[in-house]
Design a protein that fits this description.
The complex is a heterodimer of chains A (140) and B (137). In chain A, 32% of the residues lie in helices and 32% in strands. With 140 residues, chain A is of the alpha+beta class. Helix content of chain B is 33%, strand content 31%. Classes of the chains: A alpha+beta (140), B alpha+beta (137). Chains A and B meet through helix 1, strand 1, strand 2, strand 3 and strand 4 of A and helix 1, strand 1, strand 2, strand 3 and strand 4 of B. Strand 2 of chain A pairs antiparallel with strand 4 of chain B.
Chain lengths: 140, 137
């Protein structure tokens, strides 16, 4: 069941998890057909699709995450389901040295500014917190 | 809706696709609690988890990464800990990159892949497998 934000319980459970190692955040994304900017946004009325608006968010997020040691492992567009079926249109995977680095990115001074693109572009998503077993062709 | 294999329609549309560039296959995986090897498998009757059986499959596939005709790279494989947004029931996420769909088809036809495949059958309950085109990664 997709959503737009973590619930308070989901956020607490993530934050308080005692596991100290790297985390890889797997975002499964569904975009708005047309971006929905708000009247107070500089982009209000721009005729772009949701994917384009979300791309603006993810590029800014990748830059902010880098300051905490985070990297974007994958940003990709869905072409088709080869097994099973579903409705995800994009996949974004960000790797962080630990969960504090992810939380620091959410608290980055630029985050509030960039999140308007996420809100304009994203219809819903799932975000799976994973622990790396293999990364870039090598066992971790 | 997850499944175990592509339908014939899915297989045909994957093979017939004109795009011949690199692809990243996004695997969302759910394992059996207990591995179910078939009679005839050397491992028949072994009491291991589905995750352990699937790890043998992943190790077998990883060995093929040295073959340039297959060219698979495990961009990422990770164990699901929790859902931070939304809800679902996946145990693992695996991202496999191939230089082209022909490389992946070559892998699936390779006898070494087919030998490792029994571990996938034993360990996997079901999955989604999404073909993606990456702009990063």
């Amino acid at each position: 069941m997709p959503a737009f934000q973590p619930t308070a319980d989901q956020f607490r459970a993530f934050r308080d998890d005692p596991h100290e190692g790297a985390v890889c955040q797997v975002n499964l994304l569904k975009f708005r057909v047309k971006a929905l900017y708000q009247p107070e946004d500089p982009e209000f009325g721009e005729a772009v699709d949701g994917r384009t608006a979300y791309r603006r968010y993810s590029e800014a997020f990748t830059a902010a995450a880098a300051e905490s040691g985070g990297t974007t492992t994958l940003l990709a567009d869905t072409e088709r389901y080869f097994i099973g079926g579903g409705d995800w249109e994009g996949v974004l995977v960000n790797t962080f040295p630990n969960r504090q680095a992810f939380i620091a990115t959410l608290n980055h001074p630029d985050y509030a500014e960039m999140s308007r693109h996420r809100e304009a572009g994203l219809l819903c998503q799932e975000l799976i917190v994973t622990r790396p077993v293999w990364l870039h062709g090598a066992q971790t | 809706m997850p499944a175990l294999q592509p339908t014939s329609q899915q297989l045909k549309s994957f093979i017939d696709e004109a795009y011949d560039g690199p692809i990243v296959m996004v695997n969302l995986l759910k394992f059996r609690a207990v591995a179910a090897y078939q009679e005839g498998d050397p491992e028949y009757g072994e009491e291991i988890s589905g995750a352990e059986a699937y790890a043998r499959y992943a190790a077998g596939v990883a060995e093929l990464s040295a073959d340039p005709n297959i060219g698979i790279t495990f961009v990422y494989l990770g164990a699901a800990q929790r859902f931070l947004i939304g809800e679902g029931d996946w145990d693992q996420v695996a991202l496999a990159r191939y230089p082209s769909r022909k490389h992946m088809a070559q892998m699936m036809a390779d006898p070494r892949y087919q030998a490792a495949h029994r571990h996938r059958v034993a360990g996997l309950l079901h999955q989604d497998l999404i073909e993606t085109h990456a702009s990063l990664g």
